[in-house]
């Protein structure tokens, strides 16, 4: 009886590769979530902090994970319908009710923490391929897409190549 042609051990290789890819996706989301926590905490503790009147804007912070094939991302922002308006009140004489609050609180936090955000995400998507011959380390760096003040999308660069 004739045997079907195939590569010996391919199923084992594919199983191990898929396990590593799944690990990368999980670690990627973990890093994105940790970065969003850093941003949120920074907006609450470092000038300019999130303005508060009734507390609705501050409590409208959200994170929304995205997974599409090999792409992983996280949308972060504020769901209050006036978030963009408050964020953009630059150069106006406003008597903010919360001390140290002000416009551009979201943007300032991302700019202030960009290196730490990159580090957090990069550390969380590092994958050691220890069992591979001549093992390697795969790293990626984050990018911030959608330069909207009320929402930002943190995503891992497409492909496996990373900047060091």
Read across the widest sheet, the strand sequence of neighbours is 1-2-6-5
Helix content range = 25-40%
**Structural class from helices and strands?**
alpha+beta
Order of helices and strands: HHEEHHEEEE
Q: Output mean pLDDT.
A: 73
Distance between the termini: 53 Å
Taken together, the total number of domains comes to 1
Description:
- By secondary structure, the protein is α+β, with helices and mostly antiparallel strands.
- The chain has one domain (17-155).
- 40% of the residues lie in helices and 19% in strands.
- It contains four helices and six strands; from the N terminus they run ααββααββββ.
- The strands form two sheets. It has a four-stranded antiparallel sheet with strand order 1-2-6-5.
- β3 and β4 form a beta hairpin.
- Mean pLDDT is 73; it is low at 3-8, 127-149 and 157-164.
Short description, anyone?
With 164 residues, this protein is an alpha+beta fold. It contains four helices and six strands. The chain has one domain.
């Amino acid at each position: 009886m004739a045997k079907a042609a195939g590569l010996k051990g391919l199923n084992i290789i594919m199983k191990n590769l898929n396990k590593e890819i799944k690990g990368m996706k999980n670690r990627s989301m973990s890093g994105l979530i940790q970065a969003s926590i850093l941003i949120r905490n920074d907006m609450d503790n470092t000038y300019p902090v999130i303005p508060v009147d009734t507390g609705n804007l501050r409590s409208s912070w959200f994170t929304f994970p995205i997974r599409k094939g090999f792409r992983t991302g996280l949308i972060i922002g504020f769901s209050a319908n006036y978030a963009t308006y408050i964020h953009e009140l630059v150069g106006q004489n406003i008597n903010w009710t919360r001390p140290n609050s002000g416009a551009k609180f979201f943007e300032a936090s991302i700019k202030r923490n960009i290196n730490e955000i990159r580090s957090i995400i990069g550390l969380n998507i590092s994958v050691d391929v220890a069992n591979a011959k001549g093992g390697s380390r795969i790293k990626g760096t984050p990018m911030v897409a959608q330069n909207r003040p009320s929402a930002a999308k943190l995503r891992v660069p497409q492909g496996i190549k990373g900047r060091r």
